[in-house]
TrEMBL record, chain A:
UniProt keywords, alphabetically: Cell membrane, Membrane, Sugar transport, Transmembrane, Transmembrane helix, Transport
InterPro entries: BP-dep_ABC_trans_perm, MetI-like, MetI-like_sf
Lineage: Bacteria, Pseudomonadati, Pseudomonadota, Alphaproteobacteria, Hyphomicrobiales
Originating organism: Pseudovibrio ascidiaceicola
Name this polypeptide is given: Multiple sugar transport system permease protein
Record field: transmembrane: 12-34, 73-95, 107-129, 135-157, 194-216, 236-262
Principal cellular location given in the protein's record: membrane
Subcellular location(s) per record: Cell membrane
Membrane topology listed for this record: Multi-pass membrane protein
Assigned protein family: Belongs to the binding-protein-dependent transport system permease family.
Domain ABC transmembrane type-1: residue ranges: 69-262
Keyword Transmembrane helix: yes
Length: 276, 366
């Protein structure tokens, strides 16, 4: 195969361009992996020498930051359980029953939620939560997240369930199962990949959020990791790069491992299909 | 086993009637086929027997029990779904024995029964596989096994063979026929394939637009179709139909159409009445009752349109001047020479006549 001069030139320039773009994306990630193990990490990229775990030990000694990780877990798992449970039941009902106007219910909720969970609604949310006397509790954070994420979760799941033939449950009922048994034995296992997708999505959302817990919580003992990360800034507001990098790596670990676990166990299959 | 009774059953979706005022009785041990084109309400009727759809009005009985509003699980029925509805997360053994599981059988019994039924259906070696890991024919037999594993009063089938290729379908059809004969189970079988209905059923209910237009034995439906719709739907190729004009002459009925074909029939009093109201009737002749002839009476003439060799027989189609086509089924052994102009003759005892509304007119010999 012979290539003309122009073809060679265009291939070279394409490769160079692609490499440049790739580097732009890769650099921060490489820094993210190297800096935590470098005792003298700066904002510049540098291969750690000597390789050290000292940054991590210092971070582990910071009780506020460690407590923050635990709080993030409590809030995320609380929110995820609530969203997963409620969205599954609601989406199943919306998909399978013949309530008139069920389509518009979903869309209306979705529309409201995109308004409500935005920062524009922070003031009313704060007022409602304080009226309920829930300010500075995990429950407040969990409820607000669940409320904000539920409509989208329901929408995704309802679509997923719509793609699953009704004949599964029907054949179970003809075989002698009650509607409840048909749901538990047949529908739920088939819906599970969809629930997993929703759960991961909700977890990542809550785990990474800053604003809502920052506003709804007061005491240091309840702050999640996203807020606690500010304990690695000096009084003057400049980051302590070494500790920040180490903490950031720990902070991202649950999300990455969750993704890997789910991918290994279920695979991210949207075989119900999102029709949108 | 039990009988089934439909009493004035109507099912509407909005203001559309999927099933209109259907009434029929199915005897204990019968194999009934619901036959009709797609969308005529067969599946809806079946689902009402299963309890997956509730009639808008009318009552349904299984045995002497009114089951109209009963949950499917309380009806003691089995059903094979068109898409098989095998549970993707359960293996074949668990799929087959699911009806036993929900009825509280212990695991050992379930495994035993699943093995027994699977062996009969020749899928006994697949019990550990998942549904996605077996072929379409095997999936079909798995869904059949699941329907048979637990003794039921009524067995329901919704086009169970429609997803199989032609060869497997014939095999499965033969097996179902054998099963029905050896077990004598009350069955309702939905199909749009008239050959399947003819082969399997003790009686066939032909449906058209939500109505049952004829409910009779396969032979009766074939020989004496109640309407032009049935005549056209049953038989392959279907009955030849030709609009004709009828007149009463010398105490006998003459049927005329363009091109000078005349049929003389012994007079029947119901004819005179029907013909007096509207002389535009329809003549029907089955393809196998037509033969090449040199006679002058009871003859359809036309130009040779197609001559298809089917092996044991051939299908000869002629086109009349009015563009109506007639197909004859002629044994290949009858060595006939077909020229461009063909005359197909028939005997008057083999014809069907339908009035202007398409309803069968009874002949004297009926
Ligand atoms: N759940 C439903 N909602 C609205 N229309 C329906 C529903 N189920 C069936 N139909 C309509 O009723 C008619 C009969 O359907 P069906 O019994 O499935 O026909 P068949 O099985 O004979 O092909 C069809 O026109 C179909 O569109
Ligand atoms: Mg159907």
């Amino acid at each position: 195969m012979t290539l003309s001069f122009q073809q060679i030139l265009s291939r070279i320039s394409f490769s160079v361009l692609a490499a440049l773009i790739g580097i732009c994306f890769a650099l921060p990630l490489i820094w993210f992996l190297f800096a935590p193990f470098n005792a003298r990490a700066e904002l510049g990229l540098e291969i750690p020498s000597p390789f050290t775990l000292k940054n991590f030990f210092t971070v582990f000694e910071n009780t506020f930051a460690m407590r923050g990780l635990l709080n993030s877990f409590i809030q995320s798992i609380g929110g995820v359980v609530l969203v997963g449970f409620a969205a599954t039941l609601a989406a199943y009902a919306l998909s399978r029953s013949d309530i008139p106007g069920k389509k518009s219910i979903t869309y209306l909720l979705l529309l409201f939620s995109s308004v409500v969970s935005g920062s524009a609604a922070m003031v009313p949310i704060f007022l409602i939560v304080s009226k309920l006397g829930l300010i500075d509790t995990h429950v407040a954070v969990i409820l607000v997240f669940a409320g904000g994420l539920l409509p989208t979760a329901m929408f995704i799941l309802r679509d997923f369930i719509d793609g699953i033939p009704k004949s599964y449950e029907e054949s179970a009922m003809v075989a002698g199962a009650s509607s409840m048994q048909a749901f538990r034995d047949v529908a739920l296992p088939v819906i599970r990949p969809g629930i997993v997708v929703v759960v991961v999505w909700a977890f990542v959302n809550i785990w990474g959020s800053f604003l809502i817990p920052f506003i709804l919580l007061r005491s240091d003992e309840l702050m999640p990791a996203s807020v606690a990360i500010y304990s690695f800034y000096s009084e003057a507001g400049t980051p302590i790069v070494t500790l920040l990098a180490a903490y950031a790596l720990i902070y991202s670990f649950p999300v990455i491992s969750l993704y890997l676990f789910v991918n290994w166990k279920f695979g991210f299959r949207f075989f119900g299909g999102i029709k949108a | 086993m039990a009988s089934i009774s439909f009493q004035n059953v109507t099912k509407s979706f909005g203001d559309f009637n999927a099933v209109s005022n259907a009434s029929f009785e199915i005897n204990d041990g019968e194999f009934i086929c619901l036959l009709g084109p797609s969308g005529c309400g067969k599946t809806t009727s079946l689902r009402m027997i299963a309890g997956l759809e509730t009639p808008t009005s009318g009552r349904i009985y299984i045995g002497d029990k009114d089951v109209t509003g009963l949950h499917p699980r309380d009806r003691k029925i089995s059903m094979v779904f068109q898409d098989y509805a095998l549970y993707p997360h359960m293996n074949i053994s668990q799929n087959i024995s699911y009806p036993l599981k929900v009825r509280g059988e212990n695991e050992a019994t379930r495994g035993e029964r699943a093995q027994e039924v699977a062996d009969v259906l020749k899928i006994g070696h697949l019990l550990d596989r998942l549904p996605a890991q077996i072929s379409g024919g095997q999936q079909q037999r798995t869904s059949l096994a699941r329907a048979l594993v637990n003794p039921s009063q009524v067995y329901l089938f919704d086009e169970p063979l429609s997803n199989l290729d032609a060869k497997l379908r014939l095999e499965a059809r033969g097996f179902l026929h054998h099963l029905q004969h050896s077990m004598g189970m009350t069955s309702v079988y939905v199909t749009h394939d008239q050959a399947e209905a003819m082969a399997l059923a003790t009686r066939v209910a032909v449906m058209d637009q939500g109505r049952i237009v004829q409910f009779a034995t396969p032979m009766e439906i074939y020989r004496k179709p109640a309407t032009t719709f049935v005549a056209n739907f049953v038989g392959n190729p279907p009955m030849n139909l030709l609009p004709v004009e009828a007149m009463v002459e010398d105490n006998s009925l003459k049927v005329k159409a363009d091109g000078l074909e005349v049929v003389a029939l012994p007079m029947h009093k119901s004819f005179a009445e029907a013909v007096a109201i509207n002389p535009n009737i329809t003549l029907g002749v089955r393809p196998e009752h037509l033969r090449a002839t040199a006679e002058e009476e009871n003859v359809v003439r036309g130009k040779l349109f197609a001559n298809e060799n089917m092996g044991a027989e051939k299908l000869v189609t002629i086109e009349r001047p009015d563009a109506a086509r007639f197909t004859a089924r002629i044994f290949t052994d009858d060595d006939i020479i077909l020229s461009e102009d063909v005359a197909l003759g028939f005997s008057s005892q083999h014809i069907s006549l339908f009035d202007a509304d398409g309803n069968r007119l009874a002949l004297d010999n009926e």
